[in-house]
Amino acid sequence: MSLAMNREELEDYMSQIFPQVSQDYSVQDLTEESIVMRLAVGDRHLRPGGTVSGPSMFGLADVSVYALILARRGQQSLAVTTGCSMDFMRKPDGNADLIARCTLLKLGKTLAVGDVLIFSEGSDKPVARATMTYSLPPEGSAAAAFG
């Protein structure tokens, strides 16, 4: 399967539908099989103790799977998260951006499942791992065409 959107088209579309967070996330690499996303860590992402908060890591995992679904299927902004399993394994470096490496384990007609490993930039040891499940609007439906 080929990509429905390239990196630039994906970032432009995400900026349109999520302008409130578009400055936080960027696409570092995109292939048919995977996406690498960056969270530009700032003070608002930190919790006491100088570590990146769990909700910030969840957001990065969620956005990564969502972005890869969009890149593969096209402008379907109504795909929604229906499940998440997340393991927090190490303390992230509060002075480094977070990097997420995401692959889709399944991309069906109505369901997508993605796996995400999150790293502090400069480290090869993951700080978190997530499996995200998304419900997808049927292709050709009014919901699928929303955007």
From TrEMBL:
<dbReference type="InterPro" id="IPR006683">
    <property type="entry name" value="Thioestr_dom"/>
</dbReference>
<keyword id="KW-0378">Hydrolase</keyword>
<dbReference type="Pfam" id="PF03061">
    <property type="entry name" value="4HBT"/>
</dbReference>
<dbReference type="GO" id="GO:0016289">
    <property type="term" value="F:acyl-CoA hydrolase activity"/>
</dbReference>
<dbReference type="InterPro" id="IPR029069">
    <property type="entry name" value="HotDog_dom_sf"/>
</dbReference>
<protein>
    <submittedName>
        <fullName>Uncharacterized domain 1-containing protein</fullName>
    </submittedName>
</protein>
<feature type="domain" description="Thioesterase">
    <location>
        <begin position="49"/>
        <end position="124"/>
    </location>
</feature>
<dbReference type="InterPro" id="IPR003736">
    <property type="entry name" value="PAAI_dom"/>
</dbReference>
